[in-house]
Specification:
The structure holds two protein chains of two kinds. By secondary structure, chain A is α+β, with helices and mostly antiparallel strands. Chain A is about 35% helix and about 25% strand. Chain A is globular, with a radius of gyration of 20 Å. The model of chain A has no long low-confidence stretch (mean pLDDT about 95). In chain B, strand 4 and strand 5 form a beta hairpin. Chain B starts with a strand and ends with a strand. Helices cover about 0% and strands about 50% of the residues of chain B. Classes of the chains: A alpha+beta, B mainly beta. Chains A and B meet through strand 8 and helix 6 of A and strand 3 and strand 5 of B.
Amino acid sequence: MTDQSLWSSAAPIENLRRRAAIIAAIRGFFAGKDVLEVDTPVMSNAAVSDPYINTVECRYQPLVGGDVEMKYLQSSPEYAMKRLLASGSGAIYQISKAFRNGEVGRRHNPEFSMLEWYRPEYDHRRLMTEVAELLLPLLGLSQATEYSYAQVFETHLGIDPHSASVDQLRTIAAEHIDSNYEDDNRDNWLNLLMSHVIEPRLAGEGAVFVYDYPASQAALAKVSEDAQGRAVAERFELFVHGVELANGYHELTDATEQARRFAADNRQRRAENLPERPVDDLLIAALEHGMPDCAGVAVGIDRLVMQAIGTDNIADVIAFPLPRA
Amino acid sequence: MANYSTNQFKNGLKVMIDGDPCSMVDVEFVKPGKGQAFTRVKMKNLMSGRTWERTFKSGESVEGADVMDTDMEYLYNDGEMWHFMDPKSYEQVAADKTAIGDAHLWLKEQDACQVTLFNGNPISVTPPNFVELEVVETDPGLKGDTAQGGSKPATLQSGAVVRVPLFIERGEVLKIDTRTGEYVSRA
């Protein structure tokens, strides 16, 4: 590719037509179900606390030429949409841009498109049904398989991910992955095994939901007990041909627990020498006021279009990925 | 040598892995939505030729390898080593059997080759894509046979044996594709 060609669309125009048709179908789906389309700020005062999501920071000047205030480009509209739910919005969806520092590769662009929706009175299992109802027809798939997180680890690696020790995980990882990787954090080992060993094996199964993640990976999901009495996060992910497409929760509504998790995220950030983040007090306040019991999910639109078209390169579905932006 | 961090990884970057110079063949950023980022690299060991996948944690760094691809002229084989010369500096290097690999089948004196040097020593030799070599031995050509028909083995001046059309005679110079080891045409 010469520099001369950087002005033009990376994605073939035909693919952009397909992308537009998919987005139109999504809007049609929610219009038919009376789910309200909403719009929340892309630039906000607080950033997400997840240790491994690096927010893009930006410099805002209330007085041009004056002092600079730090703002953040959203990595997901989750916090703001929850404040809308607490404001009494009822079921809502949003198609928006999200930003993540450092995430660039075949399946990642630092600026990407996200579909997120929330369903009052749903739990994560009921929302999985609706995710399949919306996405499978767009992908030409007729059904999705469902496995618990414990099931995929038992089937593919022969271990219980809820009880395996760091040493066990390290030993199993060494059998499958060549790396100098060292870490004392169990979840990091589980993520390594999930992304390097299990996801590629799910590739042959079409659409696969994995649900009931370890409680330690709850993020913003409720925690409950599974049939074996193990603490699990009421969270699911959808993989299509081995590619992560959606992440959903039966949402945490407890303000005290949410504040505790934000603090825990910042403790982990300190331990790993990552910048700490201001706690989003407005989300905590909304939860204190009361957010309806609900389930919510985020879907990567670019990856959805990639799967619909059958490409493994995000540049085939984005007109101007970062190098051309 | 410089160290390279995962965000500098790219195809073709040469690094030291477990004491051997390796080349990155395919670099992929991998990140579970809520998890740590990794860089997964398909790596080729330049000494053994073995390719495999290695995973790096984001931010991990590796030492660069002092590997250089150099255009050189093939001089001669002394029975044990193959000798090459840099046409600009006139410096000479000698490649052993491991480094030369199958390339010796296609070497003709004074031809230009690409020699990969590691710390100044040759570790691999890539002949030109097409070479012209003389047939030193083959069954006599069949009169009247043209482009059609079968093939026969012919031994070339470099020692390589290739399948050639039946009409090819000893003493003819042939054009060979070194990537496939196949006869292309008469030179």
